[in-house]
Amino acid sequence: MNNNSKISPLSICFLSSFLYRSFYIIGLLNLVISIAEGDSIFSIIIGSILGLIILYSYFYLNNKLTKDTIFIKISKSLPKIIADFIIVLLLILLLFVSGFTLYNLSLFVNYNLLNNINILPISVLLIVSVTYLASKGINTITRASGIFIFTFIALVIISIITLINYSDPGNIYPLLTNNFLSIYEGSIYHMILSVTPIFLLLIIPKDRIEDNKKYNRYMVITYIISFVYILINYVLIISILGIKLTSILNYPDIIVLQKVSLLNFVERIEDLLSFKLMFDGFLFLALTTFYIKEGIIHLFKMKPNKKLILLVGLIILIVSIYFKITNIKLVLYFMTLILLIHFILMIFIRKKS
Questions:
Q1: What is the pLDDT of residues 229-284, one digit of tens each?
Q2: Is 51 inside a domain boundary?
Q3: CATH number, residue 143
Q4: Structural domain includes residue 286
Q5: pTM of the model
Q6: Cα gap 145→16, rounded to integer Å
Q7: How many whole angstroms separate alpha carbon 100 and alpha carbon 31?
Q8: Which has fewest Cβ within 10 Å: 66, 107, 301, 320?
Q9: Partners of 266 in beta bridges
Q10: Is there a domain that residue 3 lies in?
Q11: Inside any domain, residue 91
């Protein structure tokens, strides 16, 4: 497959729909609820609106890339020593974020499907699958997301149709019981962890995208659809479990899915439906693995090497198992730094223009 071939803007948008939800199941939902409690629905709404502002900063950077990747643009816009430092910092931050994602995705699989076995084999299997996908290049990653999206939509429709009978709108109330600062803090966290992963798409040069005029419009539409899905999912969980029970559960989505039956005949299909929750983290890991590999190639002026991506996968696995990061707030700080780096880059690109 030609890794320099054009990429459909629609396939990138399919990938972005999973990136928006990268941290939703592995900590973001619990984090927002722990801060804003019953008013977390307002944090999600405000955070999603603020996220549109960040999305437009992504468009600005993407328009400036032309034939360059984000790493080339950093090297062109900043003195070499500063540019290299920023690229190394980005790669280190993403290694820890990837380690967090792999470890918590493995915990999720263990909790939901394999009933408390050692998570090392799960992590190995996941990182091998991720590395294989990433080794095929960005075209294959975006095409895989196109396949996943239709499976995801089908599973979502089944979940909503079967779960809506269990919902009780009274569980959503009372609202506006917390101060605005808590709601705003939750919204900022939601904004950062939802939108920052999109900046990893800057590894794709602008001239690799088939139709840039449609691209920005598709990205906004995808963002709005993802926001609506998250909001519906949140309301469904809270209306079934209530805010107090949801706040103490690690994976409230799974508890809710255990109520699902298909046409009141097929029971216990939550294991199948829970796969829709894994797609987000899996594709995020594939993209970060590819991104880190491309960053190393740029730093050390290396030729593309399939063994290098195996090394990246191994390092992510070691970080995951050795550090065992479960604190989503630590990852929030990492992602905030990644977001700030891109804003700083925007300033220097504007000066160079």
A1: 999 999 999 999 999 899 888 888 888 877 765 545 455 566 666 777 789 999 99
A2: yes
A3: 1.20.1740.10
A4: yes
A5: 0.94
A6: 9
A7: 15
A8: 301
A9: 262
A10: no
A11: yes
